[in-house]
């Protein structure tokens, strides 16, 4: 449909330069095509007429036919309004206008029959409609829309060139009036035929002007399918290209380092899930292709251990390996646990973070370059330009959201042939989202916790019941356990949060005078942070007061209570991450979510979900349903490859699976899309990529 794309919206009847500018700035509409792809977000059935007797105060909208029987202006100044009565022959309701009084008064005629549309509400025992839409009964022509009326996202109301939903609909109609040719198809016939999809030409007309809900359903299905299909096709094609083009290092053997660790140093049995995942990774790394794998597993499922064993395989094959963590605390902790676990095994491990001193840093650089260092652990300091590996074979990235794709790519450049990449994430990503955001990565899932873990008991407690919590905490500490108390930290109001944290610290010191309390927050110097963490990890302090710096990966198995203050300020995934800091040992653990009484429904729901399940995937799905995929923590940075215009990852998973299967089939038969039948696919992918680039340049 290239030619719709070349029609400038400015020249459409009813637009002009000013509106064109508004459309471009606010809705990203510059061409006829953009306008047709600005889909309605809802429809209202205007084929249904009510009678006044049927109306209740809580209906979303009503439609009546009748006359305006009186109109008068009442009140003064800011309270001034116009009140009318509307009679449909079965009763009377009240109409109210606060704005545009003069204009409306001039428009309304007493004997005319009107169609009234609006939201009813009950006020002083009468039903009224504020700012109703009134239209003359149609006489064949006119702008009245019968049937399903589309509603569009509109432009900002304050602007002089404000476009209402109705105005946008009018413009859409104008496009269809001036563009009478058939809109060319964007899916090949073998796909539309196989799935009995509505043709694009019809689907676009139907989505804006649906004759009935069945047709609307078909049009919406076709457009959603197409949107998800091209995303999948694009991702799978990239993956194919990688598999065909990028040669990977071949790790053909498992040698002494791995075996020694497995037989001597590993203090427990691997879970079946860990074994399976290690097998999957080994197979990948031995295949001759470059591995790009996402290792997903709930908090505490033993991902780091898997990563370590895979790193040993790299070393067995004479390669260096590195592990990147998102924070210094985590990098240091990884360094310590890994050094501990590899005790007695002859590997050299280094730690490189922003606070590594110059002399130590130089030494690390030299040892890396000479190949003496086998494992380098660190923060993003690892990808600075002067860090040169001798032969980097495997990169493990912990919590990739914080790194971003561009940073990942910098690692490639460090080697002529790219290292294998294993990305670990504890943020459970709903399947549907993983298929779109991480679709170019293979996925391994650890879906089993080490044996003996008891499910964490979670409760939601109001501030007023704090004394009970204090008592419980004391009992736990007396029983030898340790406690986290976490306070929110939100960037915009750091000052206030800091106050929360220090107040909390003082309060806790007062309540528990006999215990040692440590505190960590993001503004501390790394050495201070480490010292405080160390105090807690070694058991010197019983309580750790902290901000969310402890959110990922901190591992103190003896800690059994997690108190989250102002829990309403955290998203579900973050709450789950925080909760994952306890329940890492054999003791029964508890998570207490503290909030005030005044909570929105959504927050209440969040607290309820947390108290009901410990399953990270269930929580992630619920999070996506509550907040929509765009908001999902940690995913904003990675971003969807395309902005979704019509499909919804929370609701359309069935269509997504179908789209993925079809894309897979297509590529199986024609990996490079060279067949004549698929020419349209190749063209369309190119067009979508171009479109994305254009928008990136404009915005
Ligand atoms: N198979 C196992 N049996 C018993 N304990 C295990 C097993 N695997 C790992 N562990 C232990 O469980 C704890 C959590 O493991 P690890 O840190 O590897 O998990 P993780 O998935 O990386 O956690 P997180 O995402 O929270 O950082 C560690 O103390 C580890 O030693």
Automatic annotation (TrEMBL):
Which GO terms fall under molecular function for this chain's record?
3'-5' DNA helicase activity; ATP binding; ATP hydrolysis activity; DNA binding
Q: What EC number is given for this enzyme?
A: 5.6.2.4
The membrane-spanning stretches of this chain are none
| Record keyword Transit peptide present | no
Q: Which residues form the Helicase ATP-binding domain?
A: 284-446
Q: Per UniProt, what is one Pfam family of this protein?
A: Helicase_C
What superkingdom heads the lineage?
A: Bacteria
Q: Which PROSITE patterns match?
A: HELICASE_ATP_BIND_1, HELICASE_CTER
Question: Which chemical reaction does it catalyze?
Answer: ATP + H2O = ADP + phosphate + H(+); Couples ATP hydrolysis with the unwinding of duplex DNA by translocating in the 3'-5' direction
What UniProt keywords are attached to this protein's entry?
Answer: ATP-binding, DNA damage, DNA recombination, DNA repair, DNA-binding, Helicase, Hydrolase, Isomerase, Nucleotide-binding
Top-level EC class as recorded in UniProt: isomerase
Q: Where is the Helicase C-terminal domain?
A: 468-625
A single GO BP term for this record reads: DNA recombination
Coiled-coil parts of chain = none
* Sequence similarity: Belongs to the helicase family. RecG subfamily.
Instruction: Sum up the protein's function in the record's words.
Output: Plays a critical role in recombination and DNA repair. Helps process Holliday junction intermediates to mature products by catalyzing branch migration. Has replication fork regression activity, unwinds stalled or blocked replication forks to make a HJ that can be resolved. Has a DNA unwinding activity characteristic of a DNA helicase with 3'-5' polarity.
- Protein name, entry field: ATP-dependent DNA helicase RecG
């Amino acid at each position: 449909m290239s030619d719709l794309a070349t029609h400038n919206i400015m020249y459409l009847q009813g637009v002009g330069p000013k509106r064109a500018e508004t459309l471009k700035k606010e809705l990203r509409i510059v061409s006829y095509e953009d306008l047709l792809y600005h889909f309605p977000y809802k429809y209202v059935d205007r084929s249904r007429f009510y009678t006044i007797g049927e109306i209740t105060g809580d209906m979303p909208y009503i439609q009546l036919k009748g006359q305006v029987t009186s109109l008068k202006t009442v009140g003064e100044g800011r309270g001034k309004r116009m009140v009318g009565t509307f009679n449909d022959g079965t009763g009377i309701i009240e109409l109210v206008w606060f704005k545009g009084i003069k204009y409306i008064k001039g428009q309304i005629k007493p004997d005319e029959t009107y169609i009234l549309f609006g939201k009813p509400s009950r006020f002083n025992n009468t039903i009224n409609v504020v700012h109703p839409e009134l239209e003359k009964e149609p006489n064949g022509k006119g702008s009245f829309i019968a049937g399903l009326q589309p509603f569009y996202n509109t432009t900002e109301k304050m602007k002089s060139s404000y476009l209402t939903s109705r105005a946008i609909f009018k413009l859409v109609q104008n496009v269809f009036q001036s563009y009478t040719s058939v809109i060319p198809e964007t899916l090949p016939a073998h796909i539309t035929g196989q799935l009995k999809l509505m043709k694009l030409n019809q689907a676009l007309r139907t989505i804006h002007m649906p004759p009935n809900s069945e047709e609307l359903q078909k049009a919406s299905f076709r457009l959603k399918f197409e949107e998800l299909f091209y995303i999948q096709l694009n991702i799978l094609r990239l993956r194919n290209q990688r598999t065909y083009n990028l040669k990977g290092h071949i790790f053909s053997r498992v040698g002494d380092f791995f075996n020694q660790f497995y037989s001597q140093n590993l203090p427990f049995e691997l879970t079946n899930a860990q074994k399976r995942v290690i097998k999957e990774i080994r197979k990948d790394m031995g295949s001759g292709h470059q591995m790009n794998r996402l290792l997903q597993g709930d908090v505490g499922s033993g991902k780091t251990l898997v990563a370590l064993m895979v790193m040993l395989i790299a070393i067995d094959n004479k390669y260096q390996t590195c592990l990147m963590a998102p924070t210094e605390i985590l990098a240091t902790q990884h360094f310590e646990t890994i050094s501990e676990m590899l005790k007695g095994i002859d590997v050299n491990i280094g730690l490189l973070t922003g606070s590594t001193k110059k002399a130590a840093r130089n030494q690390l650089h030299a040892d890396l370059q000479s190949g003496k260092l086998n494992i380098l652990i660190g923060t993003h300091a690892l990808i600075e330009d002067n860090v040169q590996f001798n032969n980097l074979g495997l990169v493990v990235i912990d919590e990739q959201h914080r790194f971003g794709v561009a940073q990942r790519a910098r690692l490639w450049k460090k080697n002529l042939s790219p290292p294998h990449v294993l990305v670990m994430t504890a943020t459970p990503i709903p399947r549907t989202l993983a298929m779109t955001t991480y679709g170019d990565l293979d996925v391994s899932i650890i879906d089993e916790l080490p044996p003996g873990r008891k499910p964490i008991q979670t409760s939601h407690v109001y501030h007023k019941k704090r004394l009970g919590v204090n008592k419980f905490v004391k009992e736990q500490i007396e029983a030898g356990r340790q406690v986290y108390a976490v306070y929110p930290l939100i960037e915009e109001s750091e000052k206030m949060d800091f106050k929360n944290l220090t107040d909390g610290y003082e309060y806790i010191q007062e309540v528990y005078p006999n215990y040692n309390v440590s505190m960590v927050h993001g503004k501390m110097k790394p050495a201070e942070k480490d010292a405080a963490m160390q105090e807690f990890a070694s058991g010197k302090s019983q309580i750790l007061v902290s901000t969310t710096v402890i959110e990922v990966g901190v591992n103190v198995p003896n800690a059994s209570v997690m108190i989250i203050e102002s829990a309403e300020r955290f998203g579900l995934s973050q709450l789950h991450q925080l909760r994952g800091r306890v329940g890492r040992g054999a003791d029964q653990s508890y998570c207490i979510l503290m909030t005030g009484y005044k909570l929105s429904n959504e927050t209440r729901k969040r607290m309820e979900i947390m108290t009901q399940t410990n399953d990270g995937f269930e929580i992630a799905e619920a999070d996506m349903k509550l907040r929509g995929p765009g908001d999902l923590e940690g995913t904003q940075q990675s971003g969807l490859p395309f902005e979704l215009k019509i499909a919804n990852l929370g609701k359309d998973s069935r269509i997504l699976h179908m789209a993925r299967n079809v894309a897979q089939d297509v590529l199986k038969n024609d990996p490079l899309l060279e067949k004549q039948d698929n020419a349209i696919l190749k063209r369309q992918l190119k067009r979508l990529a171009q479109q994305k680039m254009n928008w990136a340049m404009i915005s």
